[in-house]
TrEMBL record:
The gene is gltX. This is Glutamate--tRNA ligase. One of its GO terms (molecular function) is tRNA binding. Residues 6-307 form the Glutamyl/glutaminyl-tRNA synthetase class Ib catalytic domain. GO terms for cellular component: cytosol. The lineage of its organism: Bacteria, Pseudomonadati, Pseudomonadota, Alphaproteobacteria, Rhodobacterales. A motif ('KMSKS' region) lies at residues 240-244. Belongs to the class-I aminoacyl-tRNA synthetase family. Glutamate--tRNA ligase type 1 subfamily. Residues 340-465 form the Aminoacyl-tRNA synthetase class I anticodon-binding domain. The keyword Signal does not apply. A motif ('HIGH' region) lies at residues 12-22. Monomer. It catalyses: tRNA(Glu) + L-glutamate + ATP = L-glutamyl-tRNA(Glu) + AMP + diphosphate.
Amino acid sequence: MSEAPVVTRFAPSPTGFLHIGGARTALFNWLYARGRGGKFLLRIEDTDRARSTPEATQAILDGLTWLGLDWDGEPVSQFARADRHHEVAEAMLASGNAYKCFATQDEIAVFREAAKAEGRSTLYQSPWRDADPATHPDAPYVVRLKAPRDGATVIADQVQGDVTVKNAQLDDMVLLRSDGTPTYMLAVVVDDHDMGVTHVIRGDDHLNNAARQMQIYRAMGWDVPVWAHIPLIHGPDGKKLSKRHGALGVEEYRDMGYPAAGMRNYLARLGWSHGDDEFFTDAQAQAWFDLGGIGKSPARFDFKKLENLCGQHFAGMDDAALLREFEGFLKATQRSPLGEAQKEGLAQALLLLKGGIKTFPQLIEKANFVLASRPIEPDEKAAKALDDVSRRILAELTPHLQNASWTRDALEAAVGTVAEAHGLKLGKLAGPLRAALAGRSVSPSVFDMMLVIGRYETLARLADAQG
């Protein structure tokens, strides 16, 4: 008999952006499903109507799309399934696994105060748990789970190991509120069951919820999914990741110009390992990813490691894919789109540009010589290299370049001849040449730039720089 196909899910609450921790949870679910030919589903837990705006939901979809985490089927709205959640609660009432509780908030408060004064557990024990339905008043009520009070619930967790929770520590949780709306704890279980979820991979802040949710699964006679509760992400100082550590939302990393492949690679390594491998492709990550490789301790976010991996991904990225993502970056950050000439020049120059860059803004800076149009405006540092002496030397160099064959050797020879005539090393001419051609003090080799932009453009820029 073949095993059931793997089905994972990512179930965020819309908060206005996709948190970096949520993005990693989504990635782990995506990798686990894709590596096993399974399904990766998306559910938006939008029962909080005040926060669950279309814009907040769209921000999550945009974040996942940028990261390249494609989901199967349409996103499921938890709010839209309220009738189904209600139906399951009614079924539990009918089977005796749930009951109507008519206790008021004041009565519950009195119970807890008395329990606290007597040193007893303040978990509410409803007097309606075993009441005869014939004694039910005509009054508002909640529906509570009739949880077992003896024994223990064992969460067989793939990351944390077996976690045992005494049933005496769990209350008869509310399934339906007095207005008939389902609680989060009920909705999650019903949705995961109905969606066929086989593996629940989520943050370990949900670990305690698992014991309570298992009681709903068992009350309904449903299979319990495989649990994997992953540690949260901490900042470099070892404290829970927060705004003081920097960017929290995925779109912030997109807007800072990190490539999606580098972000996927880094997030995969943030709490999961495969031997000593640091840099890997999506295909390798999908083939290697398993729950046993997830560590029990919180991972620390490290910008230097992120940038290092992004640099490696830039260097190995297919040119067409890099250009597509670059254009997406320009659009997302509301920069001007590339013109046809800029696209053509950038495509020719990518071989020179991909090494050493870690973000798209660095690419923009390094590619200024093909993205900028004449007259090239030098930045402050580059302008200092274009003093009167340097301009005279560039004027002297111009006829040598006009007559040179346009090859690297010939260009180096022409520049070398002029440098030697002035008792200069070839490198001393690179500064003013770089300023004239790129308007920057840092750029690819001046000879590489000349070859990319061609004879006409090179001579025109040198003429502009001479004033």
